[in-house]
Specification:
The chain is an alpha/beta fold. The protein is built from seven helices and nine strands. Helix content is 34%, strand content 22%. Strands 1, 2, 3, 4, 5, 6, 7, 8 and 9 form a nine-stranded mixed beta sheet that branches.
Length: 249
Amino acid sequence: MDNATATSTSPRATIDPKEAAHFGKLAAEWWDPRGSSAMLHRLNPVRLAFMREAIDTHFGGDSRNVRPLSGKRALDAGCGAGLLCEPLARMGAAVTGVDAAPENIAAASAHAGTMGLAIDYRAGELGSLGLTGFDLVCSLEVIEHVTDKALFLSQLASALAPDGLMILSCPNRTIPSRLLLVEAAERLGKVPRGTHDWSQFPTPDELRELAQGAGLVLDEPRGIAWSPLKGLHLSEDLSLNYIVTARLA
């Protein structure tokens, strides 16, 4: 899924070259809702609903305003081909998207161009790009793909403005997530094989501890659950996937 992974010679890198190569190969299909990223297309509206509420709450916005991020800067770390960056730009933000795979950045830039959106896309290690002062920092379905979770969260925290909002999401390491998100989803072709390593999914408690080490305070997470009737939806059930807001301590 959306991830921040690419080759780096730094001994303190967060990027896994194998992950970068895996997701880079999917770049051409990223915007195809029936392609290899189909699950992300289904997940995106659920994530955006959570984000819009969090943005209005944090910045004191009006839910009727179609551009709640006007005058604000937003960073999407692990942006893939821009599925989140483009909605953020339409909300009025000056958006920067970072990804490890140059192929993803090329696809993201090309698609944004066809949409008439000016988005600053960059490939590389997040911590080497000198990005700071963002009102909104997002990293969704990314932390399970990095080599050093503590360092990655520290890099995200460094990019966040003192009064900014951070939004994180990732799969939870549970038996249901292993059965549904990894084994069933990959065997049934819902996500490409090799996308997930279940052992790298952080639990909410683990993510909270990592965030504290990076100088962040996490709020209570919301679950992203699935049911035959509702499909993917926000829930109190954290067993598959969860999304959470954070702030600098």
